[in-house]
Amino acid sequence: MYQIVPGAPGEQHVIDRTHGSPRKKKFGQESRPMVLAGLLGGVLVLAAVVAWCYYSLSLRKAQLLKAESLELKNNGYIIRNHTGDIIFTMAFRSGTLDLDSCTKEGHSLSCTRSGTGKLNFFIQTVREKTVMCYRIRWEELLDVSSVEHAMVYNDSHWYGGAEMASQYWPMRNQGEQEPRPFVTSDVYANRNAFGGILERYWLSSNATAIKINDSVPFHLGWSEKNRTLRFVARYQGSPFKPPVGHSGFPELSYRVCVGLDVTSLHKYMVRRYFPKPINVPSQEVFRKPVWSTRAFLKSAVTQEKLLRYAADIIKYGFKWSHLELDDRYTTDYGEFDFDPQKFPNASGMFEKLRKDGFQVTLWTHPFINYDSINFGVALEKGLFVQEPSGELPALVRWWNGIGGILDFTNPEASGWFLSHLNSLKRRYNVTSFKFDAGETSYLPRQFSTLVPLSDPSTFTRRYSEMAIPFSSHAELRVGYQSQNISCFFRIINRDSVWGYELGLKSIIPTVLTISILGYQFVLPDMIGGNAYPNRTAGVINETQALPDKELYIRWLQLSAFMPAMQFSIPPWAYDDEVVQIARKFSELHERDVAPRVLELAGKVVGTGDPIIRPLWWIAKDDEAAFKIDSQFLIGDDLLVAPVLEPGKLERDIYLPAGQWKGKKRTYKGPIHLTDYPVTLDELAYFYWVET
């Protein structure tokens, strides 16, 4: 049977139904491309589904690895500001995260594995009004030696950390420094160490701040080449000790906070994390100079010399808050009474000084030399820091000899020390004390204390607490978590030189730094420096090193605009010109500066805000203000620009936005004043005025 099958025009197909179907054969041949196309389409659909699933998973993973404006990667994290710019970068240097082990719950993101094994890592976000903080912890659960994170500067300027021998503002970390213990040290003796006033806090010009937790065995290093600060937690080979019951595995924990601007962020950090002074020290110390025997008479001080010094203060028409009797008035170091050879009538001397209107403070320290009569007493009572065995006292070397150091974690040692100070106070009507030393660098490398110290700088804190009963006129040179102690904190001894290494140029950066760390009642050391013979720019003879006259005058002018002034080398050691300039600036300080400082000091108790402020405090987005280290503000409206270089009768001055009234005219900022004239008996300062 046959059937005609239509084909193309002009074609006919004959199909033999009995022998198969030519039409089916033709159709099968034509269907192959369609099947292939279908299969390909299915593959494409499947690929699209897989891609969508992968994209969705990636999207969810990306969201998982974000905490607000922080983006976590396996080798670190970045933080962006509200405009999307990267403002903070931290790299994980000691290991990487296994991101597949990370989970997110609420405001916390946690991970349980690194590239080498188990760990406990988390980031927790906390928002408070305009500040976003990220609490970060990397806790090793395996026996590794250290945890290291490296913070990149990101073209911003950083401030804070510690008093240093060569102090810069903003920070200028030079060279390549391997991480070392971040503990208090005497930077006069070791100029590469961290200083006696330090806190684990840094602040940047792009409104970010970082604060390392107290529990971290913290080491700090840096790389000038890579522009990084290296934060390390380590117990091995360090003075930090794990707390009792602790595994000994290192943990690096800290918080990074981001604000709208550097000033408001710093205010938040200080209010949130720093203790505040309980009250304000004596107003007299703010108003009138302290006169110290240290640089002028040094350890050769005697009763006769002290009385003559006091008489000359009166003779030359100067005022005073108190007279400070420094090293050395005792027979041996570690005793608490006057050397009868040098001070044959100490009671009569004090009576004479009282009649002349002088209050007197005495120098003290935590050491008892082995040749002192008190060494055996303290040894028998167990008052010293001990060797690791706890059976023998640990002898230490300090700048006046070898001896033991009192263990201020021991209430009996603290009580014994205070009882002797109180005895001096009662017997001679002593007003207060200058507490010297206290840095951990005067502890032996291996030691034990009655209360074990996980952080050696806790010793500094315990020593600084000895000043509390005498705080109205007391003076400390060390501070660690000590902002609540209401006394003056003196920056470390200055050399009588012009430069940044413990010289005149270092004073403003140092005062700004410790102010940012929460220490506002600042004593900027003695006018002209300490006049050590081998570290003095000036006249040196067999008996006395006298700082360069111009250096002394410029130093005096700067000190007149600090919270307090301190003389030792007297103006009359030079000539009448210096005496007149010294009187002029002492009177200016009492009349114009001290009332303003006292008003700000009263607010410190509640806010912790600096008295001496950087220019960026009122110029939050001004790049020029972030870099200026030779000018400062007292409050928000008095700008000070001292001359800090030799041979200069002019200087360049930067005035931020606003109207600034100078000696002769008012300027509209921001403006650079080039070669502004400043004669030897002048200092440039400007008041902000309303328009």
Automatic annotation (TrEMBL):
Q: Which GO terms fall under molecular function for this chain's record?
A: hydrolase activity, hydrolyzing O-glycosyl compounds
What biological-process GO terms show up in the record? carbohydrate metabolic process; skeletal muscle fiber development
Which keywords accompany this UniProt record?
Answer: Glycosidase, Hydrolase, Membrane, Transmembrane, Transmembrane helix
User: Locate the Glycosyl hydrolase family 31 C-terminal domain: which residues?
Assistant: 608-681
Outline the extent of the Glycoside hydrolase family 31 TIM barrel domain: 301-443, 504-589
Transmembrane intervals: 34-57
Q: Which Gene3D superfamilies match?
A: Glycosidases, Golgi alpha-mannosidase II
One Pfam family assigned to this protein is: Glyco_hydro_31_2nd
Q: Which domain of life is it from?
A: Eukaryota
Which residue ranges are recorded for the region named Disordered? Answer: 1-27
Family per similarity comment: Belongs to the glycosyl hydrolase 31 family.
The name this protein carries in UniProt is: Myosis regulating glycosidase
- The species this protein belongs to is Poecilia formosa (Amazon molly)
What taxonomic ancestry is recorded?
Eukaryota, Metazoa, Chordata, Craniata, Vertebrata
